[in-house]
Amino acid sequence: MIFKIQPISTLSKSTTTTTTISRAISSLKVKWRKDPKLDQAIEKDKKHKLCARVLKEVLNEPGQVIPLLYLEKRRDRLRLNLRIKTFLSNNPSLFDTYLDRIKPPKSQLVPFLRPSQRLRHFLQREATIYARNEALIVAKLCKLLMMAKHKVLSVDKLVHVKREFGFPNDFLISLVPKYPNYFKISGAGQQSFLELVEWNPDFARSVIETRALEETQLTGIRVRPNFNYRLPPGFVIKKEMREWARDWLELDYVSPYEDVSHLDQSSREMEKRMVGVFHELLSLSIYKRVPVPILGKFSDEYRFSNAFSSVFTRHSGIFYLSLKGGIKTAVLREAYKDDVLVDRDPLLEIRDRFDELLEEGWREREQQLRVQREQVKKDMEMMTMRAEHLDEHGVDD
User: Which in 32, 89, 148, 247 has the greatest CB count within 10 A?
Assistant: First the structure.
C-alpha cells in the first residue's frame, strides 16, 4: 500500500489563537547542552578544511600558480596560523615550488607554487566523480529552488554554499546550461538569479516522506511522515517542553515543497514546516551540517522567522547546535552515530580521495622526520665516541 501525502490545504487548523501559539512557541526555552561527540565530528575536519581553503586559493589564481609571498600575505584571510613554508612542509603532497619572476624580465626570481602532479591526478578523479553524480547534483539544485518562496535563488548565494552541498566550482558554467528544462539564469552581475523552469514531481518528495513511503511499502502498514526524535544520553528537558514536543510531533508533517503562503508565520504548522526545511537542507548537505550564518542568508527565500536559530535548541532531539570553533553550526542528529557520519552522501568520495592524498603526504613527512631524528641520533653518538676517544688519548699523553 502506498501512502499518499495529505495536501497542505487539508491540514488541521489549530484552534489556539495566533497570539497564544506564538507565545507558546517563543516562551518554551531549552537550555543548550554540549554534545562532545558531535563537536568531535566537526573538530576532525579542521585540518582537512584548512588544506581545502589553501588549495582553493591557489586553484583560483590565473594559471593556478601563485608567488609564495602573495600567499603568505593572505594567511589571515585563510585563517592559517602558521607560515606558508611550514604549511607546505607539513603537507608535501599538495604543491610543487619553483622559481619564476613576478614581473619578467627585470624582477628577481622568487618562489612560486603550483599544483603537484599528485594533486592534478586527484583533480582529474574529482571531475570523474562529479560527472558520475551529475544527476544527484541536478536534483539537489532543483530541490533548493523548489523549496524557495518564488522558486528563485540568488546566484551569489548559491556560489557561497556550493561546497556545503557538493556542487562543482564551475557548476553555473559546466552544469546549469546543460539543463535548460530545469534552470534559467536571469539578471546580471551581483543581481543574477537562478530560476526553476520546470517542476519535477519526483524531486518534490523530502527525505522524511521518502523514508515513510519506503517503510510503508516494506511493511504494508501506513507510516506517517515524521521526524526522528533522539535526545542524546543524559539530556533531560522539562516536563512542559516534553509535552509540547510530543503534541507538536503529532501535528501533520508539512512538506518543505508544499505551498505554505496561507499559513501564519507564527503558527505551529509553520514551525513544523520550518523544521522540515532545515531537516531537508541538512539532509541535502554533504556533511549533514551547515553553519547557521549560511542558513540565515536564505531566511527570506525559505520563510525563516527572525529568531530561526532557536529552532535548533528547541528541537534538540532533531538537531544539535554546535558552537565549535566560535561558529554556530546546525547538525542533523540522525545522520551521526557518536562522532561518525553514517548517512554518507555519494559526493563524499571526493573527500575520501582528498584525504588519501593528504595522508600520503603526511606519511612521507613522518618518514622524513624519522630519518632526520635517526641521523641526529647517529651524529650525537659519533660525537660522543669522538669525545671519549679524545679524553682517553689525552689521559695517555
Answer: 148
